[in-house]
Amino acid sequence: MEMGSPLESLFHGLPKYLESVCLIMICFLGTLSCRFTIEAVLYSPFPRSRFSIIGSGRPLRQRGKDTSITIGEERNENIFLDKRGKWRVSNPKKLSRKRGGSLRGRGWKYGSGFVDGVFPVLSPMAQQILKFVQRESDAAKIWASLDTLPPTHNLWDDLINTSVQLRLNKQWDPIVSVCEWILYKSSFHPDVLCYNLLIDAYGQKLQHKKAESVYLQLLEAQCIPTEDTYALLLRAYCTCGLLEKCEAVLTEMRKNGTPPGAVVYNAYMDGLLKGRNTVKAVEIFQRMKSDRCRPSTDTYTMMINLYGKANQSATALKVFDEMKTEKCKPNICTYTALINAFARDGLCEKAEEIFEELQEAGHEPDVYAYNALMEAYSRAGFPFGSYEIFTLMQHMGCEPDRASYNIMVDAFGRAGLHEESEAVFEELKQQGMTPTMKSHMLLLSAYSKAGNIPKCELIMNQMHKSGLKPDTFALNSMLNAYGRVGRFEKMEEVLTAMENSRLEGDISTYNILINIYGRAGFLSRVEELFQSLTSRGLKADVVTWTSKMSAYARKKQYKKCLEIFEEMIDAGCYPDGGTAKVLLASCTADEQIEQVTTVIRSIHKEARNVFDI
């Protein structure tokens, strides 16, 4: 060895094996020094900038990304020391194309777009197959083309990878074509992954009988079903409302000695929630815990979403606290679901607390988290607070999506700032995004509340020119706009157009009509509309009852209001704060006020003991 460098002079005279050990130690110390450098950057003594939010005294912390740290961490994760003592670099995205790294024989995680956590890496042949099956809709032509390919191991990998990619794209018909060819036409012996993909595709297409047939073929082929198989079959039944068959799946699992796990219960609850059977979903969650099955992060996230959508943010927070008590680590989706729960109730300060907790847990807020926080300030009536979050997310390098702009359009519209709402709408188009039906509806709602009829009609015309057909929400906004300015004939024209078209009015449609006619004093029309709900298959909600009651409260008809209130309770509809205000407005004597106060208090005490979502 020549004495060419200080490092070589240091090792001069040492045995070869000691030189190797010293080199490894120096590399290890170098890695530690990089880590210490990173820690020094993370814990810099310089203060970070803070952004205060209008409407709340709690500041939001800035958590930016350091690209140098990210690159360094990625390098450290991809560099490893092999058994021979040599440093090597791995590329996880290429593992699935190496020997033993294909998707053949692997398990399949239900509910995620991944197969065993590995992205499907498509070979050139797989990419051609993918493009062909996406373009071709005739299953016979797809089968004929696949018949021409030689049945090799590589083809099997390509077909499975293609099917998984199709599942990521939610393209169920091509999955059926490819997997059915494997089952019925090819010489391949399908594994459980192929059956699972086909069961999932049929379940998504609401074809539960075909999904059940594939499951029976799996058993006939002596292929052992996995927990994912049962989960997908159960969700197929659940989506079609066949709860008895769902219970039969759980019973069969127990008979086979495989008690349902978190994956199966999550699939059951997910199917129930998609079918809007929330009461049964809560029941399954409680049964899951009583069966000593540990709920997963996805389980708790679904329950937080459930309570959030039911405007029960306090219960959602209890589930979140239970999750942490059970040592189940929340992910960014869990935090976002809880922020959304507080957003729906307009509790912006609580939403901000959870947003900060999300950051403290080491998560980088994504566009969904920022959107949830923006929604919280919008619902609370702080549009400029939402706009500050909107500006902050861009400053932090998180690009707003179409939903972000829609939230800002709605935030300004709720506050009556229709000009600012339209400015955001125009900015959405300037960013190269196409406004959706919801974008137009939110802007229409903003001008509807302002009673600006010409602008509302202009937006409707723009929707027609864009090829968007107005839905019930858009027509409801027009009903509200015409009603606010007393143009009842135009309002009736819109209602007639809805009845003559395929669009059916929802309960919000009749709530608007009852409220407007009640304000104008047309009691007979109010009664006529209310009585027509049953024949239209609609059920009066708290807004409907309160609007009807308000019509009589304006006439100071206290006894009639009390009768309507009693009918409301008998119908199983519980009053809210607006109902109490209307009842009190109908009172003309102190005795009546005292009576109403007593009744409202007793009803709320009973309602606390009733679990209704």
From TrEMBL:
It comes from the Eukaryota. It holds the Pfam family PPR_2. Keywords: Repeat. Residues 386-513 form the PROP1-like PPR domain. PPR repeats lie at residues 191-225, 226-260, 261-295, 296-330, 331-365, 366-400, 401-435, 436-470, 471-505, 506-540, 541-575. GO terms for molecular function: mRNA binding. InterPro entries: Mito_RNA-Proc/Resp (IPR051240), PPR_rpt (IPR002885), PROP1-like_PPR_dom (IPR033443), TPR-like_helical_dom_sf (IPR011990). This is PPR repeat. The lineage of its organism: Eukaryota, Viridiplantae, Streptophyta, Embryophyta, Tracheophyta.
